[in-house]
Design brief:
With about 325 residues, the chain is α/β, with parallel strands linked by helices. It is built from 13 helices and seven strands. A seven-stranded parallel beta sheet has the order 3-2-4-1-5-6-7, with helices on both faces. Helix 9 links the parallel strand 6 and strand 7. Helix 2 crosses helix 3.
């Protein structure tokens, strides 16, 4: 099964890519083992794509912007994959919005791939298997992978741990919007784009750009030698997007040539390993019948104030045969 799936995926078959991502997202132990084997086998074929994160508050026009950017890249001969992280349904656990319904033109192109993935309650703007999906897209031959986050929130920063560059989209008149964007996101953004800078709202967009320049003066710059650029664009009028992409390409080339890109990806791979360890330990505690019973009892004591959270974590680790001193540091 894995041999056939890997071969089909390396040939760029979209059905194989969808199946592989579904396998990586599954929490079944046999699926996890198969996904581990598949990803390990495909690793030599990963790493060639530009990984771009796109974040912004709901309503800023992320999907429209991504569709126009994707169509532009397709015209230039690129193969584009979009990993869109949607809020999860509390009933089915599936994606609520479904970006294929909002990117109709892009989704129909044979050289594009769009995957809407439910966040499944995972904070940070991305889903647990988003990085795995990104690697699978690279193995399938997509040279540009765009990761659309759920929307700016308290923890909307994890996307920076899986992409090369982070683009923050902002709407004109974003003074109130600026209050809702956490400082950490501004510090992590490589580029800020004022979207919806249409003819009628151009003046408001320029004022918003000034507001963000002022805000950036109060936060630590991501790159001391290169201040975060603020650009204007309109996905509706299809203006400024090419100029924005040229800037992103220039920035990506500079971090590649300096060695920053390879170091960033190395750190991201290690961080992903530890996140997976944590998620699998928790899943074991929740799903194993004996451990789930123990987990519930410990959680109840924390809930009632009888046990401190840190002590509870030590007790749960002890039930797994792990030294509680692992929590130190």
């Amino acid at each position: 099964m894995i041999d056939e799936l890997a071969a089909a995926l390396l040939q760029g078959e979209r059905a194989a890519l969808s199946k592989a991502i579904t396998l990586a997202e599954s929490v079944r132990s046999d699926h996890a083992e198969a996904a581990d084997e598949l990803l390990t086998r495909l690793m030599p074929s990963t790493g060639s794509a530009k990984r771009i994160g796109i974040s912004g508050t709901p309503g800023v026009g992320k999907s429209t912007f991504i569709e126009q950017l994707g169509l532009l890249l397709l015209e230039q001969g690129h193969r584009v994959a979009v990993l869109a992280i949607d809020p999860s349904s509390t009933v089915t656990g599936g994606s609520i919005l479904g970006d294929k319904t909002r990117m109709t033109h892009l989704s129909r192109h044979r050289e594009s791939f769009i995957r809407a993935t439910p966040s499944s309650g995972v904070l940070g703007g991305v889903a647990e298997a988003t990085r795995d999906a990104l690697l699978l897209c690279e193995a399938a031959g997509y040279d540009t992978v765009l990761v659309e986050t759920v929307g700016i929130g308290q923890s909307e920063t994890d996307v920076a741990d899986i992409v090369d560059l982070l683009l923050l989209l902002v709407a004109p008149g974003g003074g109130d919007d600026l209050q809702g964007i956490k400082r950490g996101v501004l510090e992590l953004a490589d580029v800020i784009a004022i979207n919806k800078a249409d003819t009628a709202t151009r003046a408001a967009a320029e004022r918003t750009a000034e507001d963000y320049r002022s805000a950036l003066s109060l936060v630590r710059p991501k790159r001391t030698k290169e201040p975060t650029e603020i650009l204007l664009c309109s996905a509706l009028e299809q203006s400024g997007i090419n100029e924005l992409w040229i800037h992103v390409l220039g920035l990506w080339s500079r971090i590649e040539q300096s060695g920053e890109l390879s170091e960033l990806r190395r750190k991201q791979a290690i961080a992903s390993m530890w996140r997976t360890v944590g998620s699998r330990v928790r899943r074991h505690l929740e799903q194993d019948a004996f451990q789930a019973n123990s987990f519930s009892k410990v959680a109840a004591r924390v809930d009632s104030g009888q046990l401190a959270s840190r002590a509870a974590a030590s007790e749960l680790l002890g039930s797994l045969g792990l030294d509680a001193r692992l929590l130190d540091g």
